[in-house]
Amino acid sequence: MIYLQLFLSFMKIGLFSFGGGYAMIPLIQKEIESHGWLSASQFVDIIAIAEMTPGPIAVNSATFVGYKAAGIVGGLIATIGVATPSLVLILIVSRYFFKFQDHPVNKMIFYGIRPVIVGLIFSAAVFVAQTAFLKEITVLNLSYMLENFLYIINFKGVLIFAISLICLVKFKINPILMIVISGILGLLITI
Predict the structure, then answer these.
(1) Which residues cross the membrane (predicted)?
(2) Single pTM value for the model
(3) Which of 14, 75, 100, 128 could bridge to 82 as Cys pair (CB 3.0-4.6 Å)?
(4) How much is the average pLDDT of 138-143?
């Protein structure tokens, strides 16, 4: 049953996601939460791994989530689920797209989709930032969060972010090298 749930969930994600892998992250998060496959911190770890490994982030995320939820077969099924809608749609659309690419309705559709994609990517960034910079808390009350601001901030995550931002912007360090350095800093800080 979990295999069918993985396939259908990731097929739905692949079918209704526009804008690439980063735009899929909120949809993947919602599916994971609704099925209880992973915790929020595990999901953020999977996003980090999916970004570091070669290939599209959506496919990598689906593979890792499927693997964590149901082993190797689950990873394979989730990957097939997320890739199937794109394959089918590309085969259908490619046949007709060039005939209608300059049609005003087609241009308006793509013009309308752009802000939604930016919103989805921003939503994913906020989720990752919350998980990286804030400790897990059970009370989601704004007054509690303001009163205990210093307690709920993950200073280690903020410190690594600040160091990496300074190194990337001011010293123009290669982003790949910065990922390695950040990983080492994270390891050293948690020891």
Answers:
(1) 6-25, 69-97, 109-129, 149-168, 173-190
(2) 0.57
(3) 14
(4) 55
